[in-house]
Amino acid sequence: MTLDLEDYFRTVFEEHLTKVSALDRGLLTGATRMILKQKEIREVDKQLQTHTEEFELKKESLRRRRDELMKKEEKLKESLFKFDKFLKENDAKRVRGEKKAQREREAVRQKEEEIERLKEECAVLEACRLRLQRKVKKNALYWAFLEQVLNLTKYEEVWELLGRFATLLSNREQLQQRESEMLEQADSQRGALQRYTDQQSCSILQKNNLLSHLQTELDQKRSDTLRWENTWNRIQTTAAKETLLLGQVKVVTLNLYHMMGGTTGQEEGVAIDDTVAQLEKIQLFIQDQSAIVNNLKQSRFQTVTKANLK
């Protein structure tokens, strides 16, 4: 900052000197101008010194004021921090207080509900007590009766008699339960027997149906067997007839073969049981004889024709 002021005053002084030099350059001598310049320099230095001192005073004043402002700012920040902390603590205390008040109100409400519940329980217990008192008063007659019965038994206390009675009741209940279980078991076995009987009846019915079906098939097979036996008998009868006919054919064929001069049992002959070969030989013989007859007929016809022509 000091350097800036010095530059400023130096610039002003140089401008002033320049103006003076421009005005008096032609009028003053060199020594006079030097004296004037020195005087002006001293005046300018004096003014510069004065302004510098004033500036330093102002600068010091501004520095002190800035320090005071910084201290005030620090104090203000500290005050704001303390105030913010105070507000936060107050908010936390307020929240804790509200929560505590809420818990206390909830506890009071629960206590009131518990008081109401206990009052209701007391009322119920009181009603139960009155009912039991009436029941005791009503059963006092039975108690007196039990004491009279006790005098007639071997028991010394009513509780022993009641215990014996409870034992008998328990035994009766057990016997009844056992009887009920036996009845249920009998019903279950009866149902199982009925189911088994139904199953066996159904099975017997199925077996009877199967037996009837098999009997029908057996009758059908017997009928088919009888029919096939009759057919076989007819086949055998027909086969016997055909065998007889075949034998007759073979005998006739063999006779015809012998009649035409055929031989059997030799190397050039035909086997005696080879009917087919014999028939072939007979066929050839008949064809030869037919050819001979035809030739004779043709020769005779030609002879007759020639005779008629003469």
UniProtKB/TrEMBL annotation:
GO terms for cellular component: cytoskeleton. Residues 52-135 form a coiled coil. This is DUF4200 domain-containing protein. The keyword ATP-binding does not apply. It comes from Esox lucius. Pfam families: DUF4200. Keywords: Coiled coil. The lineage of its organism: Eukaryota, Metazoa, Chordata, Craniata, Vertebrata. The keyword Nucleotidyltransferase does not apply. Residues 35-150 form the DUF4200 domain.
